Amino acid sequence: MNRYGRINRATYFLCLAILTVIWGLASVYKVRIPGEILVALVAIPRLHDIGKSAWWAGGALLLEVAVVFIALPFAISAKQPQIVSIAGGLLVVALWGVMILLGCIRGNDGVNKYGAAPPRGVSFKTYRMTKSAAEAEAEAF
Fold this sequence. Notes:
single chain
């Protein structure tokens, strides 16, 4: 059984907007929030809605770590530590583009292995696989 369920595009974009406002306010008040984890928590049910595994979100987090470790030797050899910040910033911009693209992809119709299709509009209820949905899927085949 799936833990995160599925959310539709409208809910996903609303959650991204809320997270962006919270993250912006936190940065104004110099509060450090682990934005990567918060964004991953929103991206996982969205990935499930399009039939993809949550490991895709984990891969994005690992990519961020890899970029920093790849940029670090260049920053040390050039004696310019801002190279790491620039590389990390470019990756963040690219990942935000991917997050927006993720919200534009239409979800799977009907039941998939992550749960029932969420209804249209904004709904904060995630739609997980239930026994009745699993039975309905088994009967469909």
